[in-house]
Design goal:
heterodimer; A: 280 residues; 0% strand; globular; B: 112 residues; mainly alpha
């Protein structure tokens, strides 16, 4: 059972240590320090590890990142939710090619138009993103590190939002951002390769990134994908342990979730990916 | 995985009914409804799913739906290719599922 620290009289709990300085086994304790989400409307018990993962993601969203402030990160998430009702996004999704439809996105929340377009595309039509599109994003002023951090926010928020939709919950209110400047930490060991952005190979994960990857015999590209933002990797894989399977167990046919069997798990996973038009 | 035969056509929505996976029809109907965001359909398919699964398994389904809405977006936003090992193992499955119809297959040139 996770025990939450008592509130100090007259003020909120101190901000928790972040993952980069926290042993992996203490992530649930870190997550316990963030305000608990309300799952009561789901009408079913929600596992402690899922609750902890959602709190961890909310803590990740609200803190200053490597390149975006906490306020910008929360704004990115708000914009991502706005994409769901965006008429331009709906028209593009329905079109044979997203490039065939032009126009303006719905309320931008103060973010620049180029950022909004990226946020909305990742949220609503990720399967039709392309290297050429990404290169145009960079040419338009959003560099790879800012882009990867933005991807981490939109994607992890989307996962929690789909979970909520699945169990009949309204989306959790976005957190209040934490103050502070971005760290501007760019991992020295990230190298260009086969993806659109540089990534860190497991054998190169050293120094501040030494603990970044989960203990597993093989680290697939999906785990390496966000490695320009090490805390994104840490958050994502702690979350994935709870929502799917630990990386080290994915290749084990006997590994399964607590209640759903492996074949049922993979059927649901494959159907989601087919509907997202995700080849990977 | 365990030697049982599974009809992969269900993944593409090309088959309805049992596909060799317990409660496949209910799982797929609910997954589709959640993905499409139609509240009334979600309610109906949720009820059907909960009639055949435990509360814990139902929450597991929701968790997997959440998980793959993350990783699909990460994969397609970063342009990662399929890992070599998976590429070597999955040719038949990729062909049966016609996965190269997805634009994101361009990120794995060796698969084309």
């Amino acid at each position: 059972m996770i025990s939450c620290p008592a509130d100090t009289a007259g003020g909120p709990p101190a901000a928790p240590k972040w993952l980069s300085s926290t042993p992996r086994q203490d992530y649930p304790l870190v997550a316990a320090m963030v305000t608990e989400h309300d799952y009561s409307a789901a009408g079913v018990p929600i596992r402690d590890d899922l609750r902890a993962a959602h709190r961890l993601i909310w803590e990740y969203i609200r803190k200053p990142g490597n390149w975006w402030t906490g306020a910008q990160r929360v704004a990115i998430c708000a914009a991502a939710r706005g994409a769901d009702a965006c008429p331009l996004c709906r028209a593009r999704k329905a079109a044979l090619s997203p490039n065939a439809v032009s126009g303006k996105h719905a309320d931008t929340g103060g973010l620049p138009p180029n950022v909004i377009d990226v946020v909305h595309r990742i949220r609503t039509d990720p399967g039709r993103l392309s290297r050429a599109w990404f290169e145009s994003v960079v040419a338009g002023g959003l560099d790879a590190p800012h882009y990867v951090e933005l991807v981490s926010l939109v994607t992890m928020l989307s996962g929690v939002d789909f979970f909520c939709r699945s169990v009949g919950l309204a989306p959790f209110p976005l957190p209040e951002p934490l103050p502070g400047a971005p760290s501007r930490h760019l991992p020295a060991s990230a190298k260009p390769g086969t993806a659109w952005v540089p990534m860190i190979a497991p054998e190169d994960a050293a120094g501040p990134e030494a603990d970044m990857y989960p203990p597993a015999p093989f680290i697939p590209n999906i785990v390496r994908a966000l490695s320009l933002i090490p805390d994104a990797v840490r958050t994502l894989w702690h979350s994935s342990d709870a929502h799917y399977l630990p990386v080290a167990e994915i290749g084990n046919p006997a590994a399964r979730k607590a209640a759903l069997d492996r074949m049922q798990t993979e059927l649901v996973a494959a159907r989601v990916s087919a509907l997202n038009e995700c080849f990977y | 995985m365990n030697g049982a035969a599974v009809d992969l056509a269900a993944i593409n929505g090309d088959r309805h009914g049992e596909v060799g996976v317990a409660h496949a029809a209910e799982l797929l109907a609910f997954t589709d409804a959640v993905m499409r965001g139609d509240d009334s359909t979600i309610r109906g398919t949720r009820a059907a799913l909960r009639a055949v699964l435990s509360d814990e398994a139902y929450v597991d389904v929701a968790a997997v739906i959440g998980a793959f809405n993350v990783v699909d977006r990460v994969a397609d936003s970063i342009g990662i290719p399929l890992d070599d090992m998976m590429l070597a193992m999955s040719g038949d499955v990729r062909d049966e599922l016609r996965l190269t119809r997805f634009a994101s297959s361009a990120n794995t040139p060796a698969a084309l």
